[in-house]
Amino acid sequence: MKLRQKLAMVLAAAMVVTAVPVTTMAKSTNEISKTISAVEGTVVEKDELFLTVDIEGTSNGDTVFFLTTEAFEFNKDEYTTAGQTTGVYVAGNVKVEILSKTEARVTVTGDKAAQIPVIGKVKKGTPAIIVDGQDSVVTSGKYTLTASEIAGDKVYVATAGDAKNVSIEGVGEIADITIEEKVAGSFYNDADGVKFEIELPNRSDLEFDGTVDVEGKRGHANTTLKADGKVTNDGKSLIVTVTGFDSDAQRGSIVLKGIGVKPENPREDCSIGEVKVDVKDVVASGKSEKLAKTELVVANVADFDINISVVDDKKVELVGGKEAKKVNVKLKETAIDSLDAKRDVYFTVEGAHVTTGTAVTVKVNDTEKKGAATINEKTGEITLDTSVIEKNKINTITMEFEVYADVNQNGPITITAESRGFEEALKAEIGTVKAPFKVASEAMTVKVGLQGQVGGKITIAETEEEMFDRDEVFYVAPTKYFSIEDAKVEVTEGDLEIESEVQKDGTIKVTVKRPSDEASTITISGVEVTTDRMVPEGSFDVEIYGEAISEMNVKGHPGYDKDDEEKTDAITVKDFFVVGTKNTEDLPNAAAAKEIVLTVGSTAYTVNGEAKTADAAAYIDANNRTMVPVKFVAEEFGKVDFGTINGVGTVTIFKDGSVLQFQNGSNIMLKDGVKIPMDTKVVITKGRTYVPFKYVADGLGIGYSFDAATKSITFTNQVK
Predict the structure, then answer these.
(1) Mind spelling out the 3-state secondary structure of 89-151?
(2) Strands across the sheet containing 626-629
């Protein structure tokens, strides 16, 4: 094909493409003109509320879409335009056809920006208009008409502020009562003002004294309102009339304040307890129309008393061994003269430490009183000088001071207040301490005089990420008698990065190279030690200390002790090393030929035919396993030691150079540090430790048999 022909074909194709009309995808921006304040039954009038639909792009013909409602009903009559059928509204480029109380069809022509009136009645629930733009260019969506759910038809809602304390003499004020209008203009539209009745129960020892004040809030915040109070019903009812509303544009509320009460009988004390009132609106018919009768707790009649708490309920949250934080404690009288201005109050903190050498900030009724409290340098006890309280007032005293926790503390922090003027001590929880680490261990049983013994395990688990800080160091060291020669130190969970080395002084040094992003666990295992013949029997601890364990080990922290330095705050792994006799091979009866016979259910037993009596008998447990009192068997063939490891009762048996260990409640027997599972658990009953006889015999390397007919157990130790 010639070039001229090719060019002609390309031009022709281009002309065809440009001749095809391009249709752009359209959409709309929809919005409600405003949200309205309403209750059930509120009528939305014409020209009050609109749905605006602004269609982007262009297309030929009319745009038709549908509207449905939730918790709202269209008023069909109001959508009628002169000359149109009832329920058909036409204005400009918009035509609205009401199909039912909850459905309408909308047609938009010409100019694609359209205003659709929303006219009708609000129902219970969340009123909304739903745009169904399917098969059209209009964007579907749901548009709520009110800011909150509609619960009922009452225009007013009454609530009470914090209940106030009224002295036992009955003189004082009740809590502020707030009346909120749910629909804008409700207060304003009552030409003679709004009236509310506050009513005490007939059984109350109090009555109203007629005092009341009012304050406007929100839409009525800058309005000069007036409240008049009239006492009726022998002092039990207070009719409050509020006037002065000057606007219906915004919704607001009124706060009835300074409502005074007095004793019904001035010669008698009032009953202690809660004071409740009923609040309702007053109308000519005598029935509450706009405010449902509401019961409110407005006061407490209290005898002379004092409460202690944390200011604003903001309890301090500490991490053991980390930074100190401030806490605010409040001491409040419930009635005038509850505190004695001549008797100081003493505060002690448990579960954390008070930072000494610092000032306590004291405020009495929001006025600072310098030097009103001091801290004992040795005990951390805080002394409050009560001469700073104000007379003839119910005093609120706040104290701000600093607290910190050590690495071993975990749980609630409490404060106790005591004074000669108190009938009993006051106590409150002021915070909590979270432990930074969880440490667990498996004890290492060692023999005296042996080199290179290996065993034991210690795990140090962060309770959350970043408990270890970058470049900080901690040490693992025996408290005495032992020197660690080698150990395996590794991160077994999480992403913490560390380096470790065993130092010449017999301690393990661990350096944190990178903090964790997820809580991590360090495991120390394969601990190698050598013991000489001078090490006494018993259990010995290991300490974990250094700046990575606790900031208290760093100079500058309020808990730092210059005498202990990096050991100021340490974690102790109790009973990590368990040492038996000095030389188990020299036990006098270890290699002697013996035969011991015990009978289930009997304390009588024989040793080489010689009758003896024990103070405990063998028995058969729920797993059909024969359990023997370990003391009598072990002492005949070796030596037995009873103790505890990590608080758990433990039995250690030494024979012919071997070491057996059993723990109460465990089904694991340790033989020379090796775990051997048993098919039943060790039990302590009436102070005696029972173990399954088969495992005792196997562990000690002695023979055994069981006669089912006589239920007798025979142990034999034959010398080769």
Answers:
(1) EEECCEEEEEEECCEEEEEECCCCEEEEECCEEECCECCEEEEECCCCCCCCEEEECECCCEC
(2) 619-620, 626-629, 688-692, 683-685
| Mean predicted lDDT score pLDDT of the chain | 87
Helices (H) and strands (E) in the chain, counts: 3, 61
Angle at 536 between CA 534 and CA 538, to 5 degrees: 155
The answer on pLDDT for 357 being more than 60 is yes
C-alpha to C-alpha distance for 33 and 47, rounded to whole angstroms = 11
Give the span between the Cα atoms of 537 and 582, in whole angstroms.
7
In this prediction, residue 719 carries a pLDDT of 56
Token readout for 318 is: 């500490």
Strand 444-446 and strand 571-579: the pairing is: parallel
pLDDT digits (tens, 9 = 90+) for 535-593: 777 889 999 999 999 999 999 999 999 999 999 999 999 999 998 654 444 444 444 56
Please state the length of the chain.
Answer: 720
Q: Other C-beta atoms within 10 Å of 684: how many?
A: 13
Query: What does pTM read for this prediction?
Result: 0.48
Greatest Cα pair distance, the chain, in angstroms, is 130
Please, where are the H alpha helices in 533-684? 630-637
Indicate the DSSP class of residue 696.
Answer: H
| Region for 380 from its dihedrals, namely left if φ exceeds 0, alpha if ψ lies in -120 to 50, beta otherwise | left
Of 714, 681, 514, nearest to 600 by C-alpha is 714
Residues sharing a CB contact under 8 Å with residue 103, sequence separation 6 or more, in sequence order: 66, 67, 68, 69, 74
C-alpha dihedral (479, 481, 486, 488), degrees to nearest 10 = -40
Q: What are phi and psi of 76, to 5 degrees?
A: -60, -40
Residue 378 main-chain phi, psi, to 5 deg? -90, -45
In whole angstroms, give the CA distance from residue 280 to residue 156.
Answer: 9
Dist CA 327 CA 349 (whole Å)? 11
What is the SS3 assignment for 404-459? ECCCCCCEEEEEEEECCCCCCCEEEEEEEEECCEEEEEECEEECCCCCCEEEEEEE
> Which residue type, as a one-letter code, is found at position 491?
V
Per DSSP, what are the bridge partners of residue 425? none
Query: How much helix, strand and coil, in percent to the nearest 5, is found in the chain?
Result: 10, 50, 45
36, β-bridge pairs: 146
- 392-437: pLDDT as tens digits: 678 999 999 999 999 999 999 999 999 998 889 999 999 999 999 9
Query: Taking a C-beta distance cutoff of 8 angstroms, is the pair 399, 368 a contact?
Result: no
Single out the residue of 65, 2, 74, 85 nearest to residue 44, CA to CA.
Answer: 74
Question: Can you tell me the distance from the alpha carbon of 279 to that of 276, in angstroms, rounded to the nearest whole number?
Answer: 10
Task: Report the SS3 class of residue 9.
Answer: helix
